[in-house]
C-alpha cells in the first residue's frame, strides 16, 4: 500500500471529497435555492478538471475564484433562506452543513493557492491569476509556436565578423 505522500494530487483529492460531502449534505433540505447547487456543482467540475489535467494552471485558478466568491454567495443564501424554527429537522441539518461548508471554504482556498504555487513553481499570493503580474512561471515561458528570428546587426550567416581574429 503506497504512502499518502506518494498518491498523486492527494491534497486536491481530499479537498474534492470534503467539498463533495458538504455540498451533498447542504443540498438535502429545501431551504436553499438552485444557485447554491449551481456554483457548488461548478466547483466540483473544476476540481475534477484539475485532477484530470494535473499540469494545467487554469482549473486551479478558476477553482480559487469560484471558491473565494462562494464565501460571499454562501453568506447571502444563508441570510435569505435560513430555515425558521418551525421548519423540519432536515432543513435545519442541511443549513448547519452549509454553515460548516462556509467555515471550511477559506482554508480550502488557501490549500488551492498552495497547490497552484506547486504546479506553477512560483511563489506568491494568487500567482498567475491576474494578468500583468510578475510571476516567475510566466516570465520563463518560451513560445515554441512562434520562433524568434534573430536580428541581424552586421552579422552574416550568424557569425560576427567584427570580432574575428586574424589567421
Total strands: 2
Q: How are the strands of the largest sheet arranged?
A: 1-2
Largest sheet: 2 strands, antiparallel
Number of helices: 5
Low-confidence stretches: 133-138
Order of helices and strands: HHHHHEE
CA-based shape: elongated
Span of the ends, CA to CA: 68 Å
Question: What does this entry show, briefly?
Answer:
It contains five helices and two strands.
Task: Walk me through what this model shows.
It contains 5 helices and 2 strands. By secondary structure, the protein is mainly alpha-helical. It has a two-stranded antiparallel ribbon with strand order 1-2. Strand 1 and strand 2 (about 160) form a beta hairpin. Helix 1 runs antiparallel to helix 2 and helix 2 packs antiparallel against helix 3. The chain is elongated and about 100 Å long.
Tags for this entry?
mainly alpha; two-stranded antiparallel sheet; 5 helices; 2 strands; elongated
Amino acid at each position: 500500500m503506497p504512502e499518502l505522500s506518494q498518491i498523486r494530487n492527494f491534497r486536491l483529492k481530499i479537498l474534492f471529497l470534503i467539498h463533495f460531502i458538504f455540498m451533498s449534505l447542504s443540498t438535502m433540505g429545501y431551504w436553499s435555492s438552485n444557485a447554491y447547487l449551481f456554483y457548488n456543482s461548478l466547483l466540483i467540475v473544476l476540481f475534477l478538471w484539475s485532477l484530470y489535467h494535473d499540469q494545467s494552471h487554469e482549473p486551479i485558478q478558476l477553482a480559487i475564484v469560484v471558491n473565494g466568491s462562494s464565501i460571499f454567495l454562501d453568506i447571502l443564501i444563508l441570510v435569505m433562506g435560513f430555515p425558521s424554527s418551525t421548519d423540519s429537522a432536515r432543513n435545519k441539518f442541511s443549513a448547519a452543513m452549509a454553515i460548516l461548508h462556509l467555515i471550511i471554504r477559506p482554508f480550502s482556498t488557501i490549500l488551492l493557492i498552495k497547490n497552484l504555487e506547486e504546479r506553477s513553481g512560483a511563489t506568491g499570493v494568487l500567482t498567475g491569476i491576474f494578468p500583468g503580474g510578475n510571476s516567475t512561471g510566466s516570465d520563463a515561458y518560451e513560445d515554441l509556436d512562434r520562433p524568434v528570428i534573430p536580428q541581424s546587426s552586421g552579422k552574416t550567416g550568424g557569425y560576427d565578423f567584427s570580432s574575428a581574429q586574424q589567421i
